[in-house]
Amino acid sequence: MAGISDRIHVKAQSPDGYRALAGLTRAGHPDHALSELVKLRASRVNNCRYCVDTHTRAGQKAGLDDARIAATADWRASDVFDERERTALALTDLLTRTDELAQAEAPVSEATWDAAARIFPGDELVQLVFTIAGINTWNRMMIAEAVSAGE
User: Fold this and answer.
1) What's the pLDDT at 23?
2) What's residue 8's pLDDT?
3) Which domain holds residue 83?
4) b/e string for 117-129 if b means 16 or more Cβ within 10 A?
5) HSE-up of residue 26 (Cα within 13 Å, Cβ side)
6) Is residue 134 part of a domain?
7) How many domains, the chain?
8) How far apart are CA 115 and CA 10, in angstroms?
9) Who contacts 121 (Cβ-Cβ below 8 Å, separation ≥6)?
10) Does residue 10 sit within a domain?
């Protein structure tokens, strides 16, 4: 395990990389509450404690109620999400879980993409994909920081 002197500090050690990742985040979906829901779900799937905490608080500020925040842990079993949210969460799982992504040609994946294209027309779908890609990258960077610190 790396010692504290070997800790990665993303922002301090790679300001250009940090700014690039921040730029990716700004390309995300404009619906703040939906974006926070997606970020929270991906962070849970990736077991990024820092990001789960961050996006729980950000989700609350964006207007997500406690029921929606809690239900992101097992959203498929919950009835608190509307069709738009369920579709965004399904796409988040598809693009976050590498086993599902590897099976992208499977019928369930096709149904997820079809639903996402219907619910998120035009640029909205690519903005949602940017949100999902961005949080997955942030999760990995924050996990790397935590691991390098021995947490």
Assistant:
1) 87
2) 84
3) 31-148
4) eebbeeebbebbb
5) 6
6) yes
7) 1
8) 36
9) none
10) no
In a domain, 20, yes or no: no
- What per-residue confidence (pLDDT) applies to 56? 98
The three-state (H, E, C) secondary structure of 59-102, written as one string: HHHCCCCHHHHHHHHHHHHCCCCCHHHHHHHHHHHHHHCHHHHH
- Is position 3 within any domain? no
- CATH code assigned at 77: 1.20.1290.10
Taking the model in full, what pTM does it have?
Answer: 0.88
3 burial level (CB within 10 Å; 0-12, 13-18, 19+): exposed
> Distance of alpha carbon 106 from its chain centroid, rounded?
22
Residue 28, pLDDT score: 86
Q: What is the pLDDT of residue 104?
A: 59
Quote the CA–CA distance of 83 and 119 in Å, as a whole number: 8
pLDDT of residue 1: 41
Those residues of the chain that have pLDDT short of 50 are 1-4
Task: Say how far residue 9 (Cα) sits from the centre of its chain.
Answer: 21
